[in-house]
């Protein structure tokens, strides 16, 4: 059956694409693993699937659970900030990104992401001037 | 045409009329009866539904998270599973039932109970945990040895509440009632319960005969009938009453299953009197008489309760223990006669003591102060209409181990303090709140020295002057102005007179009644000097300092006059905890919360009003104030914490003492806990205790029990550590032996250097400074 052949070819192609997407260097900047703790990693996976499934509250609960395990994990705070931004909770998002910054140490990539997120949140809150300042900070960390 | 005699026609007419009358009368009677039955039907169903749906919300503590690397000693795990009443499984026994455990030398094997969490149901898990150095090392499944990265224990059930109102009831589901109790109940009260249709004709007949013949109304009531009697709580004993009751019983059985009726009975039946409060239902009775949940009643205890049904007053085991014992044993022998028990069970049960708790528990829950907080926050954070639905499950933040540590510390320290200070026994009171600095979750609330007593909740309602607990707010306000104040600033602790129109002159004094001249800023805070602190606050402006306190989370109105700087404001321990949470989290104020989620019976979370999380302090000044508060513990008024916590915990905290030693406070935090303790007297009399001699010792003992994480705040970007010569507060060379490292907000570090090599006068200040900041 020729359809079968096409299907197989399609599957192989899709598999290759998936594999490539996971390879380092394919992404412009691969995000480092969120944590060395496998419990935290599992919870972040849960949170991301919940977002994909349109269940932001479940995602929030999973991230809060992860944060109880690693309250000083800047990447987790960032993840939660991003979630709140997508939920339209801009004030929260800004504050959580600031929280992430407080634990980010020398992670310039994460700091840039946080400042950009803060800029977006401030824009949504109508604070255009504040947003500009935040984006400028993000630029500093991206340099 | 037949002739009809007028007389017979008349008779016939009369007959017809009579017949019609009879028919009408009969019909009317029938209709009346039907209407009556209908009325009863509606009434009894309304009653039943009303009771049936009065199922309370079940309240749970936080589940203990199990994951490799988690800080948990085997002892802590055993404490938790003991609270959960896991059974010890003897070696060689089968691991069939959930809720069993076995502790071996280095590992713990257990089977969790299944539980429906907010994110789905976790089935029973059979796990083996190993430990290393106070942490979980590995978790494996017992069946195939595969690694488990994350699991939860089932959470402790801490109480049942009616979220929409504040009533004490303890309803149970049939599935949670011990089979021995159900069996005894049916054997004694209504042997044919599962066969009859609401009434037992033979029993009824007997009862009817004795009633009619004037022998008094006898039993013979089925459980269904007894339930109806309890619904209407009438002791009226007439035939009419009996008739209504029978009719209602039949109707009830038409509508509901046997199990539904039995469950309602178990929850409704009258079992005694607790002062003003009637004890209804076996759930409440188990608590009231045995101080334990119904699930955990033993056979003789169950038999006693069943026996008491005949006359809860007559067989009250507290007032008439002999009678109660005889009655219980009668029940047991009847059970034996019906072969519900074998000889061994019967003998063991018959010889068991009554087992009644000496005192009725003051409250239905072991955690009344915490449950009180849950109640308040439910009403604050959730929609009333949502809370009225039945069978909600409330997942809270209570950490039973923290709660126990707090209770124990108060219970141990208060009597010891009374003894040491020669205070009358039981004169001191106390309260404690423990929370998570990062997410604001409340781990423990103790409302008084008897933590089981649901009376005055001092943690939430005792508003007391906070004394020096306000001082960190003054210093924070100062450190937020790096161009004026740093940790190297010198403060003036010389005599101070404050004049303000309309109020008497104010001359603050130090606790030691001395003035200390020029003192380093961190020393003034660490030693809690009143004069230099007040002067600093006045320089900053009282309204500015009070505004800062508000932004840290104090919602109470604060005094706008100078004495407010020394803590004339009155706050509750809970409010103080909120204030210190903001400091402990590096400046992020998170409203303290006791509820994680409220789930509907099908597991969906209820919508809650959003929480307002805010950055209240910029990271750098937050870092500096925590640094200074660590100095209080390291070498200041709270140095005594070293008796409880290792120096590497580096806790931050502040003592608080009020005039005439009325209130003794301690507020502080570690890496993973923020906690506040108050000790004082309800009558506001002097305790003879300072913050350090009273509350701080409770705090120290409590935290020691919690095995806290060290406090290592992340260093913000704009913080720069600089070597300082303690004697002058100026920069020091790296070569200076006496130099200490102090954090500065970038740009605020002193520009001038001090020539070191011992030119500055050595002395108290220098030594103290070295202790304060020497981190080795």
Can you tell me the CATH architecture of chain A? Alpha Horseshoe
Number of helices of chain B: 23
Average pLDDT reading of chain A: 84
Q: What quaternary form is this?
A: heterodimer
Per DSSP E runs of 2 or more residues, the count of β-strands of chain B stands at 31
Quickly give the structural class of chain B. alpha+beta
How many strand segments of chain A? 0
Strand line-up in the sheet with most strands of chain B: 3-4-5-8-9
**In this structure, how is the largest beta sheet of chain A organized?**
none
User: Briefly, what CATH class of chain A?
Assistant: Mainly Alpha
Sheet of most strands of chain B: 5 strands, mixed
* Shape verdict of chain A: globular
In terms of structural class, how would the helical and strand content of chain A be classed? mainly alpha
Shape of chain B: elongated
> How many helix segments of chain A?
7
Low-confidence stretches of chain A: 1-28
Radius of gyration computed on alpha carbons of chain B: 35 Å
Q: Taking all residues together, what is the mean pLDDT of chain B?
A: 88
How widely separated are the two ends of chain B? 137 Å
Bin the helical content of chain B. Answer: 25-40%
Brief summary of the model shown:
The complex is a heterodimer of chains A (143) and B (776). Chain A is mainly α. Chain A is built from 7 helices and no strands.
What does this entry look like structurally?
The complex is a heterodimer of chains A (143) and B (776). Chain A is mainly alpha-helical. Chain A has a single domain, classed as Tetratricopeptide repeat domain (Serine Threonine Protein Phosphatase 5, Tetratricopeptide repeat, Alpha Horseshoe), CATH 1.25.40. Helix content of chain A is 76%, strand content 0%. Chain A has helices at 2-22, 38-52, 56-69, 74-86, 90-103, 108-124, 128-142. In chain A, helix 4 (74-86) packs antiparallel against helix 5 (90-103). Chain A is globular and about 40 Å long. Mean pLDDT of chain A is 84; it is low at 1-28. By secondary structure, chain B is of the alpha+beta class. Helix content of chain B is 38%, strand content 17%. In chain B, the strands form eleven sheets. A five-stranded mixed sheet of chain B has the order 3-4-5-8-9, covered by helices on one side. In chain B, strands 16-15-28-27-26 form a five-stranded antiparallel sheet, sandwiched between helices. In chain B, helix 10 packs antiparallel against helix 11. The longest helix of chain B has 47 residues, at 6-52. Classes of the chains: A mainly alpha (143), B alpha+beta (776). The interface between A and B is medium-sized, with 29 and 26 residues.
């Amino acid at each position: 059956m020729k359809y079968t052949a096409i299907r197989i070819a399609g599957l192989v192609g899709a598999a290759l694409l998936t594999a490539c997407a996971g390879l380092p260097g394919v992404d412009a900047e691969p995000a480092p693993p969120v944590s060395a703790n496998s419990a935290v990693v599992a919870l972040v996976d849960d949170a991301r699937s919940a977002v994909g499934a349109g269940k932001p509250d479940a995602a929030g609960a999973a991230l809060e659970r992860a944060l109880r395990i690693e309250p000083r994990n800047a990447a987790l705070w960032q993840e939660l900030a991003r979630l709140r931004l997508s939920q339209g909770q801009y004030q929260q998002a800004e504050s959580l990104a600031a929280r992430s910054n407080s634990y980010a140490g020398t992670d310039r990539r994460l700091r840039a992401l946080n400042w950009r997120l803060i800029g977006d949140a401030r824009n949504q809150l109508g604070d255009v001037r504040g947003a500009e300042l935040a984006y400028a900070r993000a630029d500093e960390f991206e340099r | 045409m037949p002739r009809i005699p007028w007389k017979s026609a008349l008779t016939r007419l009369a007959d017809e009329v009579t017949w019609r009358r009879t028919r009408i009368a009969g019909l009317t009677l029938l209709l009346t009866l039907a209407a009556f039955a209908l009325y009863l039907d509606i009434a009894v169903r309304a009653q039943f539904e009303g009771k049936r749906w009065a199922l309370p919300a079940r309240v749970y503590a936080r589940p203990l998270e199990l994951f490799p690397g988690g800080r948990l000693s085997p002892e802590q795990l055993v404490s938790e599973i003991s609270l959960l009443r896991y059974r010890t499984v003897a070696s060689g026994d089968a691991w069939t039932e959930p809720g069993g455990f076995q502790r071996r030398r280095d590992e713990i094997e257990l089977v969790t109970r299944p539980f429906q969490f907010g994110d789905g149901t976790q089935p029973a898990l059979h796990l083996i945990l190993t430990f290393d150095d106070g942490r979980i090392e590995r978790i494996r499944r017992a069946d195939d040895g595969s690694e488990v990265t994350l699991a939860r224990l089932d959470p402790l059930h801490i109480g049942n509440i009616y979220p929409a109102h504040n009533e004490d009831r303890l309803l149970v589901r049939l599935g949670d009632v011990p089979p021995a109790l159900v069996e005894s109940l049916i054997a004694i009260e209504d042997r044919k319960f599962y066969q009859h249709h609401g009434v037992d004709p033979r029993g009824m007949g007997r009862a009817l005969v004795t009633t009619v013949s004037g022998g008094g109304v006898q039993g013979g009531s089925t459980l269904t009938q007894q339930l109806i009697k309890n619904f209407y709580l009438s002791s009226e004993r007439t035939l009419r009453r009996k008739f209504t009751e029978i009719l209602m019983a039949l109707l009830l059985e038409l509508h509901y299953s046997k199990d539904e009726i039995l469950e309602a009975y178990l929850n409704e039946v009258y079992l005694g009197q607790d002062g003003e409060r009637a004890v209804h239902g076996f759930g409440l009775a188990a608590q009231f008489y045995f101080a334990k949940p119904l699930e955990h009643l033993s056979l003789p205890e169950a038999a006693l309760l069943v026996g008491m049904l005949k006359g809860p007053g007559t067989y009250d085991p507290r007032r008439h223990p002999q009678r109660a014992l005889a009655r219980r044993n009668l029940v047991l022998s009847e059970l034996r006669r019906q072969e519900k028990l074998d000889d061994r069970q019967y003998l063991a049960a018959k010889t068991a003591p009554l087992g009644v708790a000496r005192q009725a528990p003051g409250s239905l829950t072991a955690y009344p102060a915490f449950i009180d907080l849950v109640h308040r926050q439910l009403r604050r954070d959730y929609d009333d209409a949502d809370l009225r639905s039945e069978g909600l499950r409330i997942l809270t933040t209570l950490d039973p181990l923290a709660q126990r540590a707090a209770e124990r510390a108060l219970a141990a320290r208060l009597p010891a303090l009374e003894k040491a200070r020669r205070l009358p026994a039981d004169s001191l009171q106390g309260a404690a709140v423990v929370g998570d600095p990062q997410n604001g979750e409340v781990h423990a609330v103790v409302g008084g020295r008897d933590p089981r007593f649901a009376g005055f909740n001092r943690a939430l309602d005792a508003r007391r002057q906070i004394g020096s607990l306000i001082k960190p707010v003054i210093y924070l306000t100062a450190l937020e102005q790096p161009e004026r104040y740093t940790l190297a600033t010198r403060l003036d602790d010389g005599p101070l007179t404050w004049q303000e129109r309309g109020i008497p002159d104010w001359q603050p004094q130090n606790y030691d009644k001395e003035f200390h001249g020029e003192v380093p800023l961190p020393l003034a805070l660490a030693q809690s000097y009143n004069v230099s602190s007040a002067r600093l606050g006045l320089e900053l402006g009282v309204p500015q300092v009070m505004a800062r306190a508000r932004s840290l989370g104090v919602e109470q109105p604060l005094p706008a006059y100078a004495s407010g700087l020394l803590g004339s404001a009155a706050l509750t321990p809970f409010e103080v905890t909120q204030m210190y949470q903001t400091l402990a989290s590096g400046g992020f104020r998170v409203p303290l919360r006791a509820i994680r989620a409220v789930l509907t019976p099908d597991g969906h979370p209820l919508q809650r009003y959003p929480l307002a999380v805010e950055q209240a302090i910029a990271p750098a000044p937050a870092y500096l104030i925590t640094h200074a508060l660590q100095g209080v513990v390291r070498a200041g008024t709270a140095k005594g914490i070293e008796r409880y916590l290792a120096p590497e915990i580096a806790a931050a905290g502040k003592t608080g003492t009020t005039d005439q030693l009325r209130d003794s406070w301690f507020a502080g935090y570690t890496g993973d806990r923020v906690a506040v303790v108050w000790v004082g007297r309800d009558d506001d009399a002097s305790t003879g205790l300072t913050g350090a001699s009273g509350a701080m010792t409770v705090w120290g003992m409590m935290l020691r029990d919690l095995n806290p994480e060290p406090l290592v705040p992340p260093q913000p970007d704009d913080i720069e550590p600089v070597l300082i010569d303690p004697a002058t507060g100026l920069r020091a060379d790296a070569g200076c032996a006496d130099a200490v490292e102090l954090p500065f907000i970038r740009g605020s570090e002193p520009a001038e250097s001090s020539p070191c090599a011992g030119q500055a006068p050595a002395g108290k200040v220098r030594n103290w400074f070295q202790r304060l900041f020497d981190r080795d």
